[in-house]
Write a structure and sequence with these properties.
- This protein has four helices and no strands.
- It has 131 residues and is mostly helical.
Length: 131
């Protein structure tokens, strides 16, 4: 992706890589969610969340946010802040809201989501460095 002048410079080649990067992101985030989400969530919820949360936010990160930023560091700062927050809201709305109050489990869930995003961000930086 190129940044500058508020224009999206996402080539067809880069778009063709998006599904692979999505799967890599899920491969990194899902194990974190599997282990770190609170025990109140059954395995199928954890599995679904690993695919669904990323599916909801990935297009925003790849397609929506880049035109708004002239520099990569600002795009990453905003993107890597907005995405985990959005995923926490989505997760809470679907899997936590309406359940009996359990603040400790909810904090654990939100921390797990942030941790999963941090892990995939770090993995992405590593891939970029090696590539």
């Amino acid at each position: 992706m190129e940044y500058g002048n508020g224009e999206l410079a996402l080539s067809a080649d880069q778009l063709s890589w998006m599904p692979l990067y999505y799967l890599l992101t899920v491969a990194v985030e899902l194990p974190v969610l599997w282990v770190a989400l609170s025990k109140r969530h059954p395995p199928r919820t954890k599995l679904f969340a690993g695919f669904w949360l990323t599916a909801c936010t990935y297009p925003v990160l790849w397609l929506v946010l880049p035109p708004f930023f002239d520099t990569r560091w600002l795009y990453l700062l905003v993107g890597e802040t907005v995405v985990p927050l959005a995923e926490c809201v989505l997760f809470w709305a679907v899997f936590v809201r309406g359940r009996p109050s359990n603040p400790r489990a909810t904090v654990r869930d939100m921390t797990a989501i942030f941790g999963a995003n941090l892990a995939s961000f770090g993995f992405g930086l590593l891939l970029e460095r090696l590539w």
